């Protein structure tokens, strides 16, 4: 899948996430770094860029809102008055988000980052 997809610009944490379980040759041809800036300034976020033809740094947050991530334990009364016992009573759920930040040559290709 990575071989067919083209990811424009990647930060180091994204490369780490992509590389889990894959040989480096499977994804390095699909990646390229942010372009170098001659004026040593940080590329502006697309949300703060006014001109639609200007390059900027686009951001996209993707979340998995619900996934099972463990067992849920509840506490109940034990056999004696002062004892308590734990028992499995369901599935614990979690949420995970990742913020992708990447270069776009024109703001018009990142209109969701408003």
Automatic annotation (TrEMBL):
It comes from Nicrophorus vespilloides (Boreal carrion beetle). PANTHER family: OUT AT FIRST (PTHR13423), OUT AT FIRST PROTEIN HOMOLOG (PTHR13423:SF2). It comes from the Eukaryota. This is Out at first protein-like. It holds the Pfam family OAF_C. Residues 46-114 form the Out at first C-terminal domain. InterPro entries: Oaf, Oaf_C.
